[in-house]
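## retry 2 of 3
previous attempt timed out at serialization; input unchanged, resubmitting
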Amino acid sequence: MKRRWSVIKGQPLTEMDKKILAAQKKGFSVPSRNLVHSAEQIEGIRRSGVVNTALLDMVASEIKDGVNTAHIDKLVYDFTKDHGGIPADLGYQGFPKSCCISIDNVVCHGIPDEKTILRNGQIVNVDVTTILDGYFADASRMFVVGGETTPEKQRLVDVTLECLKVGADAAKPYAFCGDIGYAIQCHAQKNGYSVVRELCGHGVGLKFHEDPEVPHYGKPKTGMMLVPGMVFTIEPMINMGRCEVHFDQLDGWTVTTKDGLPSAQWEHTFVMTESGVEILTDRKSVV
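## retry succeeded, writing output
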């Protein structure tokens, strides 16, 4: 369904109204008004982000050789509940655990279990989403088990973080989701990597997944316009080899690279402001 921007009857047009309506008239994709969050809603998402960030900080201290991923998942559940939150992953569309743990060639949605043991040199993505007082915050980080890995895998981890940063830099008020994707794709390909296309970032805040979709590849001035008050994730999944991925038909969740080479991902939740994006899942606040 194509979204349209609505004006508020009886009130004069704001500068934001004028910019969005002008873009809409030219045929660009624009948000509907309900995708622009109030200051109160943004503050609620920010509070959820504080817990989510502290949760990943806790996880960082537990990523060690010999630890099974079910243990990490239990810590995520306990920490979230102890801080008044709910792990959004648990039960979401049947997902059985409280977080996603993806190792080496697992792109995303790895399911924690007791048989999967972390080993030195592995690169690991832990993806957590917290619901606090009805507000959602979503982020993931890469970890290196034991602190050291191969130069090739370390470079993949580092460049993927750079991709997140260049994507955030491209997210300007009244720019488009395609501008983010284009910036990420250019940086990844310049470094010899490929971008996963089947999965993307998304709106978040009042629900786990909202509009807009935020692809990590694309063309400038395509996709939905980004306006102040919108909240969304940027979460590039960058492959060392080809971009093609495999969806596990047995567990219904795990996504791996088709060529078996490693993949990396970093993610933050952002709010668009009049001057650019602000990260809602960083370390500016602590629990």
